[in-house]
Write a structure and sequence with these properties.
2 domains; globular
């Protein structure tokens, strides 16, 4: 079976990790995968350079031309095409049509992010402008394109139930053509003790008596790291033993570093950059924080699951699908997105109560073991794609 995965990849994040884990588990004697990247290629370095799997990967593609896209598909002669997409509308409708006309028997989509719901057409302005927007506006074009996409797609896989409800309720996806398959993590890998955790604390000058917050994500505005910095700054005197390690890079990295310095947090907050393996940083921590400020950013964040598998209680904003992972006051704490006060209170509670941290951390680890196993998740997706 020849299968093409299409990736719309602005940077390396949970969706890319998810696809790499899926590719690793395909039976190469039966399945011949290709990855076409509409953007950068974060896959070759891991799949081919590190793991030496010899996956056919092509980057730098553009979906601006139906004919060129169709030609690219025809060269590969796929049986199945899978759109690995961040949100609704990421791939133009004619890319789905090109895939179908190339001879692919089945088309699937795997959705990892929420999409902003298009507002109703505004009546502001001249009535002729209103009629034009009603007939040809962005919302009309988007919904018309989606009708074509839905007609061509056999099944849409959502990584959270909240995302599935959004596709059905906000965008008109037929419920019978959608399915939820929760993200999963390799529990045995993340729960196994990592000796490098002690090295992380030592290199950063963090003593055993200090409480370490960890956050791992892309450094972009919607991840809410500015809220985290303000919460940590407000606790400087009340919880002097508090430290914070931020793992990742992104468009607002320099801005966040500057803000941290201006708040006088240089000895409290450590930006360690992007890491292929976050496990030693998670295990060096005591509490994980996921402070995203927008509900459509977080569907089912892998970073939270990885932290829970490491035995960390998690503080997460009640955004998107995060409540499908964190049970408030059982294995973590949920706070209102963007609320410095609530995040501050949650951090103080766990930083000052070691017994509570341990109790929540143990429950978090057990939940991941029972409910978010990577192998089970991958088997579910393979059973859909390879039927």
């Amino acid at each position: 079976m020849r299968i093409i995965f299409l990736s719309m990849t602005p940077s390396f994040a949970g969706g890319e990790k998810h696809l790499i884990e899926l590719i690793k588990r395909l039976d190469r004697s039966r399945v011949h995968p290709t990855i076409l990247c509409f953007g950068t290629d974060p896959f070759s370095r891991i799949l081919n350079d590190q793991l030496r799997l010899g996956i056919d990967i092509k980057a730098g593609l553009s979906g601006n031309s139906f004919f060129r896209t169709w030609l690219e598909f025809r060269k590969k002669k796929p049986d199945v095409v899978v759109f690995v997409t961040g949100c609704v509308g990421a791939f133009p409708w004619y890319v789905f049509l090109a895939a179908r006309l190339s001879g692919a028997k089945r088309l699937y989509a795997i959705y990892h992010n929420f999409s902003e719901v298009p507002e109703p057409v505004s009546k502001d302005g001249h009535w002729l402008l209103y009629l034009a927007r009603r007939a040809f506006g962005w919302r009309v074009r988007l919904m018309l394109g989606l009708k074509i996409v839905l007609a061509l797609t056999h099944r849409s896989i959502c990584v959270s139930e909240k995302l599935r409800e959004s596709l059905v309720g906000d965008f008109g996806y037929p419920r019978e053509k959608t399915v939820t398959v929760h993200n999963g993590v390799d529990f045995r890998f993340y729960s196994a003790p990592d000796a490098r955790a002690a090295d992380v604390r030592r290199e950063l000058g963090i003593g055993p008596e200090q409480v370490v917050l960890v956050s791992a994500c892309r450094l972009v505005p919607l991840k809410g790291l500015d809220v985290l910095l303000r919460a940590v700054s407000s606790l400087r005197d009340e919880v002097p033993k508090l430290k914070c390690v931020i793992v990742g890079e992104g468009t607002c990295g320099e801005e966040l570093r500057k803000a941290s310095a201006e708040m006088g947090l240089s000895s409290k907050v450590f930006f360690v950059g992007f890491k292929d393996d976050v496990r030693p940083y998670l295990q060096a921590g005591d509490v994980f924080v996921n402070p995203s400020s927008a509900s459509y950013v977080e569907c089912l964040p892998l970073a939270v699951l990885e932290a829970m598998a490491c035995g960390l209680p998690c503080i997460g904003s009640s955004a998107g699908g995060v409540p499908e992972i964190i049970s408030h006051q059982e294995d973590g704490l949920l706070v209102t997105p963007g609320s410095v006060g609530e995040l501050r209170a949650a951090i103080k509670r766990l930083a000052c109560d070691g017994t509570e941290r341990k109790r929540m951390g143990e429950r978090a680890r057990e939940k991941v073991r029972l409910q978010f196993d990577l192998e089970r998740s991958m088997e579910q997706i393979k059973s859909i794609l390879l039927q």
